[in-house]
Structure formats: structure tokens, C-alpha cells
């Protein structure tokens, strides 16, 4: 199961204060892209419902440009706890995916101090306040060598956009697709677990917390739980069920990048995209470059 990482869900602490948007839940559609696809519902994507797609002010998932967020915790490898760190930077750079202008997010995932994955992730918000996951280009490393790059982008090779966060998440509502990437077997789903919760992480304690339960239909009983604080975003990750990774993370810092750090991040993002064109010509190679 390829779970979406914590970094894709955390933006904006105080840097972007947004009002709660009245939102409608997207309809579902069953795509005719193979036997596996027809077993699960996917979200109807309304191309005409994106007037300002790069303005992402969902109260549970605000994307504030040039915010760097750091999470720390552990994962389990061979029954041993390993230090785990995730750093996410929301840029002001954009890209067009499936005809929609999207926000570019740069994630880095470290395991025991070594870079395990770098990723470009793409998001857009519709007029109803729903934040859509439009695809991702992750590069996975072992000992500094790339070992996999399971890229999927909406509109290419049968891939479909999914919901990163509902505009108005309600307890007891149906589950929803977080995206469909058939070529890389990305078929994660999520549902609202609990609302009105409290949690504490290294940076702060939060109330009125929303818990989203992520899962894969091919791994019954296994869930990744993500905790979202209003006006902040994802602040904590834990798990339940037969999870070999047993990932636990908490938000430890939120920093607004300086001009120099922004410039360095731009360079790194464009370098990663350049590599994406080289190693994923059949998927990433079909898109226009990031707008810097």
C-alpha cells in the first residue's frame, strides 16, 4: 500500500488564516479502466468548478506558500524502531495537470538520517472548498541510489484525481478516493474517523481536531490515522491494524522561508522536475514544465 505521506497534508500555521468554506461533497464515478478500478468508487471531477485552483484555503488543509514544516517520529524496520523525519515545503510554483493549474509541494522523507524519498506533489482546490490530489512524482532511494519512481498524474495513463481533503468533512460520511494511479497501483481511500478531538504534539496542543482514517481496500483492517487541526493542517500521524511500518509522527516546527531559502528550494524543485522528465518520459514527460 502506497500511503500518502504526512507532508502532503500540513500547511499554513497562522501564516494563512481562512474562513470555513461551505462545500459540497463530490459525486462518485466508477471508471472503466480495468477490473480493479471498477471495484471501487472514484470522485467525479468537474473541470468547470476550479475558478482559483491555486488558492487553497480549506480550514483543514491550508497551503501557505513558502512554509516549511518538519515532522519527527519513528517507523519500524525489521522489528527495530528507526528515527523518521519528514520535511515539507509549500512553494508558490505552479504546474498544469489535466488542464488544471496546481500548487507544487516539495517533500523529503528521511529514515535514520538518510534521504529515503523526495517527492513533488500537486494539489488544487475547487469552488466548493474540496482540495484535490492531482498526482505525484516520488523518487525512492536506498543508499543514495534511486530504486523506484512510481509517478502518477491525473489525466495520463488512466489516472484520476482524488480528494486530499473535503471542504466540509462530516463524521459518518462515505469514504472517498484519494486518487487512482493504475500504473503504480495507487488506490488509497479515506474516511472521516472522528471530529472534535484533542491531541498534543511537540509544537503545541490542539482542540477541535479532525481525524481522517486512510486505508487501502487490498489491506483490510490496516489504517493510517491523520490528525488535522483547524487553521493548521495535519499535526500528527499514527496507525492501527497489521502495519509493518508503524509510522508515528508529530509536528515539531513551522517556518516561513527566507528569500535565500526560497531561492534554494526553487532550484531543488526544478532539479527534481528535470530528473522526473528523464526517468518518467511516458508520464511526467507528457506535461508542461513547472512555472517558476
Mind explaining what this structure looks like?
The chain has 292 residues and is mainly beta. The chain has one domain (6-286). The protein is built from 1 helix and 17 strands. It has one helix spanning 259-279, and strands at 28-29, 42-43, 67-77, 80-97, 100-111, 114-125, 131-142, 145-148, 152-153, 160-165, 176-177, 179-180, 189-201, 204-215, 223-229, 233-240, 248-256. The strands form 2 sheets. It has a 15-stranded antiparallel beta sheet that branches. A hairpin with a 2-residue loop joins strand 5 (100-111) and strand 6. It starts with 27 loop residues before the first strand and ends in a 13-residue tail after the last helix. Residues 6-23 and 29-39 have low confidence and may be disordered.
Q: Please tell me what the overall shape is.
A: globular
* Mean pLDDT figure: 88
Number of helices: 1
**Helix- and strand-based class?**
mainly beta
What is the straight-line distance between the termini?
33 Å
Number of strands: 17
Largest sheet: 15 strands, antiparallel
Low-confidence stretches: 6-23, 29-39
Q: How many domains make up the 3D coordinates?
A: 1
Q: Using only CA atoms, what is the Rg?
A: 18 Å
Order of helices and strands: EEEEEEEEEEEEEEEEEH
Helix content: under 10%
Strand content: over 45%
SSE blueprint and pairings:
Blueprint lengths: L27 E2 L12 E2 L23 E11 L2 E18 L2 E12 L2 E12 L5 E12 L2 E4 L3 E2 L6 E6 L10 E2 L1 E2 L8 E13 L2 E12 L7 E7 L3 E8 L7 E9 L2 H21 L13
Antiparallel strand pairs: 1-2, 3-4, 3-17, 4-5, 5-6, 6-7, 7-8, 7-9, 7-10, 10-12, 11-13, 13-14, 14-15, 15-16, 16-17
Amino acid at each position: 500500500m502506497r500511503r500518502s505521506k504526512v507532508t502532503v497534508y500540513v500547511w499554513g500555521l497562522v501564516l494563512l488564516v481562512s474562513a470555513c468554506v461551505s462545500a459540497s461533497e463530490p459525486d462518485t464515478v466508477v471508471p472503466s479502466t480495468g477490473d480493479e478500478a471498477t471495484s471501487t468508487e472514484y470522485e467525479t471531477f468537474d473541470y468547470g468548478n476550479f475558478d482559483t485552483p491555486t488558492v487553497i484555503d480549506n480550514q483543514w488543509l491550508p497551503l501557505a506558500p513558502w512554509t516549511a514544516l518538519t515532522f519527527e517520529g519513528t517507523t519500524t524496520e525489521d522489528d527495530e524502531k528507526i528515527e523518521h523525519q519528514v520535511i515539507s515545503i509549500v512553494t508558490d510554483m505552479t504546474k498544469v495537470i489535466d488542464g488544471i493549474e496546481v500548487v507544487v509541494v516539495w517533500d523529503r522523507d528521511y529514515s535514520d538520517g538518510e534521504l529515503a524519498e523526495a517527492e513533488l506533489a500537486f494539489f488544487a482546490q475547487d469552488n466548493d472548498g474540496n482540495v484535490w490530489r492531482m498526482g505525484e512524482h516520488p523518487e525512492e532511494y536506498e543508499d543514495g541510489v534511486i530504486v523506484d519512481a512510481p509517478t502518477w498524474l491525473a489525466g495520463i495513463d488512466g489516472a484520476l484525481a482524488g480528494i486530499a481533503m473535503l471542504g466540509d468533512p462530516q463524521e459518518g460520511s462515505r469514504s472517498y478516493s484519494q486518487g487512482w494511479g493504475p500504473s503504480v497501483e495507487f488506490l488509497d481511500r479515506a474516511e472521516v474517523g472522528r471530529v472534535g478531538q484533542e491531541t498534543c504534539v511537540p509544537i503545541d496542543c490542539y482542540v477541535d481536531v479532525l481525524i481522517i482514517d486512510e486505508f487501502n481496500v487490498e489491506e483490510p483492517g490496516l489504517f493510517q490515522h491523520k490528525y488535522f487541526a483547524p487553521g493548521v493542517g495535519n499535526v500528527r500521524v499514527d496507525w492501527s491494524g497489521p502495519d509493518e511500518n508503524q509510522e508515528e509522527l508529530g509536528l515539531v516546527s513551522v517556518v516561513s522561508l527566507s528569500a535565500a531559502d526560497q531561492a534554494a528550494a526553487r532550484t531543488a524543485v526544478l532539479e527534481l522536475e528535470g530528473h522526473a522528465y528523464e526517468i518518467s518520459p511516458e508520464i511526467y514527460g507528457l506535461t508542461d514544465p513547472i512555472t517558476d
